[in-house]
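Morning run. Coffee first, then this:
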Amino acid sequence: MAGRIESRLQELGITLPDAPVPSANYVPFRRSGNQVFIAGQVSITPDQGVIGKVGGDLSVDKGYEAARLCGLNILAQLRAAVGNDIDHAKAIKLGGFVNAPADFTGPPGIINGASDLLVQIFGEEAGKHSRFAVAVASLPGGAAVEVDAIFEIE
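And here it is:
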């Protein structure tokens, strides 16, 4: 029987990707007590990717889509970390990095792509979180966005 979150994903027509494999010497997540720390997830999967500078060669809408893709990768890592306990997960914090030109002032709106996804799936109580959103000069593989996360498992 599918849990609450898996049912919500099906209802929304969302299929999570496979949890991405780290591209360097780190683990994709670390569980410590009742918290799960998820390493930065970029806007690239084996079958799709959003690469480039938001506010440069990429539109703001494409940047939002890139952050949403990061959110899907985060959820794939969370599911790998806790399995069926995903129903008991509560978003605590996101950190968002947007590959953008130096004068780009819209990172918060871009990272809403990941934030909105979490609220859409988990609901207001478990999906709302604290966060930061900053522009940076570049990201791994030319990714448009990178987002990391902390969840609490209740």
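The CA atoms of residues 108 and 133 lie 5 Å apart. Good start to the day.
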